[in-house]
Amino acid sequence: MSMSDNAKTAASEQWRDFCRGLEAAGNIVAQAEIADEPIDQAEGYRYLTRLLRIALDMNLENADTDFPGFYAASHATAKIGADNPDNIYLNASINASRRYRISGNRGGVPVLSFASKANRYAIDGTMASTGEVDASDMEFGPDGQFELIASREPAEGNWLPLSDDSSMLIVRQTFLDREKEMPARVQIEAIDPPQATPDPLTLDRLSKGLTQSLAFVEGTAKTFLNWADQFKDEQFNKLATVDQEMFFRAGGDPTIFYLHGYWKLKPDEALVIQTHVPECSFWNFQCNNVWMESLDFRHHDIHVNKHTASYDADGNITIVLAARNPGYGNWIDTAGHDQGTMLLRWIGATDHPVPETKVVKIDS
Predict the structure, then answer these.
(1) DSSP assignment letter at 128
(2) CA within 20 to 30 Å of 139's CA: 31, 75, 312, 329, which one?
(3) Nearest one of 252, 244, 215 to 117, comparing CA atoms
């Protein structure tokens, strides 16, 4: 057999292995007891396709750490782990042995942060933080221009620490009013790359990218399905996850206090959530499906934040999760679902109140 034939056979077998692995990943959806409605099953298989798109972006299209580029790991049609509808997320793959320059313009986004992570989602479902920098602690030019160095050794000016196993950079932009606030412009480059252009794709790199992508799909889906199962057992129709360690292990922002929960309602029921609002830079509430994807915020009012909320006379907030508008409080549309997860975030808050929740008849 010629070298060309050997290569064709190897490539064909790699593709078949990938397809068989993707088929097997479907068991995560098929065997999920929590996904017991047709919409949950349909969204579950769509969820796998979304995770695969993210994984291929990460492990094939943007895998070269000598020539990194930012890609969107969560957005309107691809979502992970209670993605924030008020956020723009940008990710880049890196190698901790190198130094990187992140540059751009601050824009007008209220909350902007940079983080380095040890991405172990495909191994144990964790994403350890190895460095965090908030825009409030950075220096910017008079027109908003900035430069940030990411490296293991300290750098002058704006510096994002890396550790030996840092493998990802994350940029989070959080908006109060996305229609009016200008996003930041951000780009990344390796400092002194070993060559001028990337190497051509090889079968080995293809095989590695496909294998890592499958592992990411399976690891991510299992991680957040386990979270939803736990919330259903412990946080049923309430928001009280005061222990934050699990969320930080999965890559959560240390400036955020996360209050997760699981909701389940009959068509004529509403979940009423009431809380006082602490001094904070930002807060929001969102409704998710059982896979911990935010519901379709392009076409439904599935979240509310510090800017968009209507406040009670005493300054508190009332949020009402229901299939139709009850005519009071801040209505959150369940968008055709009768169960799912939910999340309230306090960002930079002076304290972290736990809301009171109760299920009522919508017409009451």
Answers:
(1) E
(2) 75
(3) 252
Strand 282-287 and strand 339-347: pairing?
A: antiparallel
Instruction: Count CB atoms within 10 A of the CB of residue 128.
Output: 16
3 has pLDDT over 60: no
Eight-class DSSP state of 223: H
Scored b (16 or more CB within 10 A) or e, 284-309 reads: bbbbbbbbbbbbebeeeebbbbbeeb
Residue recorded with tokens 């990194």: 68
Sign, CA torsion 102/107/109/111: positive
- pTM greater than 0.90 (yes/no): yes
d(CA 194, CA 247): 37
Question: CA–CA separation, 158 vs 122, rounded Å?
Answer: 31
Percent of the chain with pLDDT over 90: 88
Residue 245's φ and ψ, nearest 5 degrees, are -60, -40
Q: Whats the size of the chain, residue-wise?
A: 364
Which residues, 6 or more positions from 263, have their beta carbon under 8 angstroms from its beta carbon?
237, 271, 287, 321, 339, 340, 341, 342
Helices and strands of the chain, counted as H and E runs: 5, 16
